[in-house]
Fold each of these.
Amino acid sequence: MVFEPRDAPRDRTAFLDWYRAQTEWSEGHRYDDPSRTSGNLASWYADMRRDFPNMNGPDAYQMAHDEENPRVTGYSIGTSVIYADFRWSEAEAAYATVRSLAVKHGVGFFNVSANDGEIWFPPTERTPNGTPIPGLTLSLEGQQAFKSPSLALIEAGVDWLQPAGGPGFLILDRDNSEDYAQTGGGKDACTVEWREYSNGSFRHWVAGLPGSDTKTEIEVPGNGTDFLVKANEKLSNESVKRILGAFARGLSKPKEFVWRDISAQFGAASPPAPSRQWWQFWR
């Protein structure tokens, strides 16, 4: 479900009460007409139905005789919410599309299908840049990859991370090289790594906070794994966003952080490795 963030309470208990009230569908109008909803939700719906057409209402998809389109979707459109009902076969692709378009159009997102499902609100203190960045691929554990992600989507991906149930890690690849940045963890703590290739070899760093404990080893919880790092390498989501934002814009590693070179652990003189399972990226 997506929703108009200005109309929804941010406290989780209050939000769930509000959600239940919205889905009683008691506004006294038909729920298949996008003209009834907010401008941002209508824009989300217009983008969404290009890939997942509506089965009902004025925009109903007209199937040819004997056609089977598994992406035809049921939408219930209220003043402040749009509830989408997908086929299970399309769940992974639908989830990624709903989530990314919610970021693009500045609407909230509620993962109705999950126990203790995520409730995401767009940032209120600022508006992240929603312009797609060509040449990048954003991958989250268990989700469809996003080509040409915006800074807004990358930041939302960081907020999406959670150690219990995932996604527990995120990788940002530069498409025309073997360079990448990655982060693992969740809302309370993350760790970040940055890799650059040059002349057939690479260097690989871990980001840390200056003036903090660089000796003690700690574990940052991930989804089914823990990331072993130095104490100063436990970072906040905001720090992660600054680092990934710099990588996405093609900048150097931010100098506000200290960078521990761990290239030797991977064999820096080796050529780029073939595709690996995600856990092999981590020490």
Note: The chain has five helices and 14 strands.
Amino acid sequence: MISLRLAPLAGITDWPFRLLCFEQGCDCAYTEMVSAMGYVYAPRQWATVTLLTRDPREPKLILQLFGKDPALMEKAAYTLSRTGTYEGIDINMGCPAHKVAASGEGSGLMRQPALAREIMERVVKASAVPVSVKMRLGWDAEHINVLEIAHMAEDCGVSEIAVHGRTKVQMYAGAADWFWIARVKESVHIPVIGNGDIFTAQDALEKLQASHVDGLMLARGALGNPWLFAQIRDALEGREPRTPSLRETVTVLMRHYDMLLGWKPEHIAVSEMRKHIAWYLHGVRGAAQIRNRVNTMKDPNEVKELLWSLVDEVESSGEPSVVAREEAAAHED
């Protein structure tokens, strides 16, 4: 069976959002990336503890570590893999953010194959759970070395590889290149997970046909749309994918909001939910005006009242009460 994964997304994939994705058929999720240095030197820091939090209802969670110091990566993997909290440790070799990659971490490791090898070898040896790696195609179009790094990962004992079909320099621009993902799948004997530009169930079918990967990792396509996992599973099993109504969308949005409010200080939860609200309402008529108002509100009850008023307005207008995900997805890049 094809494994459907939720990608690690900084500032997004905390346990409330992951839980909603699991409820819609996600098979495996990853924490937001955790700094090995930050964990080793300040394991009780609130920001680090927040990233490490897992809800007991999450069926399979992999912790993602980033860093460039082999000793710190080894130490963090040794300790965290023995907490009994995670089913795996993932090494981040894909983050393209400038402050991460420019320092030699994340996708910056792909420019330092010898260092990448040492980190993978030491983390695999130290970890009590399987180790995976998430990588990009390379630093730029002139330095695509994903095949070299993939073979290296397999040689080091890495259990599986996830490949995002873009270079570091591309960031999220242009189209993900699934040709290279297919090359990786053909070149190694461990499972390969494909990532990049999966916004609809049809996208998923096309990517699978083009690459024959063992699993799909969803990222931007799942933002505000945990139903994408169920839609892909429906398509894979020959059923017509189901699109949620606006009322259903807002109902889940409210659950998301309440989970965040119950976990974090109110002012932080209100601020963090603003981006999620924008994603949940993407493609809904009148959503832009609602988002502008939400971004100035500090009382969560006022936000909730405003969102329900949007639902009532759309339903009373007689317009289709469905979030237009497929049309909106075409403009993501």
Note: Residues 246-317 form a domain with the Non-ribosomal Peptide Synthetase Peptidyl Carrier Protein; Chain A fold (CATH 1.10.1200.80).
